[in-house]
Specification:
Helices cover 1% and strands 35% of the residues. The chain is built from 1 helix and 19 strands.
Amino acid sequence: MIVAMRPRAFSISFALAAFVFGGAGVVRAGTATDVTGLYYTGINNSGGLLSGGAQDSHWAVTFASVAGPTDASYQGSSYVVSNTYIDAGWTQNTAFAQWIVPPGASTAASGGTLDTGGDYLPGNGTGGNNNSFTKNEATFVYTLAFNIVGTGGAGSTVTNSVSISLTISADDQYSIFVNPAGNGTSLPTGTAAATKTNAWNNSTAVTLQNGTTGLNGNSIFVIGTNYLTVVVDNTNSITTTSSSTALNPSGLLVYQVGAATLVGGMPVPEVGTWLPLAGALGLYGCFTRRRSRQDAAALV
C-alpha cells in the first residue's frame, strides 16, 4: 500500500510491521507513521536555496566550545556560507543544499566581517576525543529538530523500523547523534551513530536507523520531537594540542542522494517541486586535492 506523504528533504523508509508487547513494566512503545521537519542545510521552508549570509532557521548551533567548556557567542541559528567564501578544498554545494557555519564566522583569516557568509572560525588541534577540550580546540554542535508522527503518545520509543538517509561533509571532522542527552545543548556523550575525520572534501552517505526487524540499529527514535545532532570539530588539521590561535575554515553540509522515500517498502514519489531527488543524483562534486590549511590570505 502506498501512503501519501508530505514532501521532505531526506529519504525516509518505514517497515510498518507492528510489534506486540505484553506484561507490565514495558517501556512505552509507539508506531511511526510519518516524519516531518527534515531539511537539508542552507534551504528555506519551501526547499529553495537561501542567500549567502542568510540565517538557516532549521539548523541551530546549540552548543559551542572554543578552548574551554562553552562559548555562547557561537551559538544560535546557523549562517549560509556565501559562494565567495566556499573553501577551495571543500565538497561543493549541491543544487539543493549549502554549507552552513555557526554565528561568529568571519570572512577572512585575519578577522574580516562577521556573519556575512564567511567560513573562518577558531580551532586548532585536538585531543582526538570529542569529549575533551585541548588548548585551542573548537567544537560546534549543530542540531535539527524534526517530528515523528504516530501512535503511542509523545516520547514513546518507536518500535517499527525507521530509516533516515543523509549525505554529509564537515570541516574538519564530525560525529552524529540522535536524541542525545540534553538534545544538543551540551556536548553529546556515548556512542555516535556515525563519525568521520578529514571530512571536508569527501561526502559520506549515512543511514540512521532504529534496529528493529533485523536492521543494524544505531539510533533511537521517539514519537514527537526528535533531535539530529552533528558535532563538528575544527582542528586546522592539527592532530595534537596546539598553541595557534589562527582562524581557519569550518562548516557543515547535509543533504541526501539516493533512493526516494519508502513506506512499507514501497516507493512514495516526491510531491510537487520540493526536491526532485532524481535530478539531484550526480549534481554534487568535490575537489580531490587537499586544501592548504596554512594559507592565511583573506578571501576577497
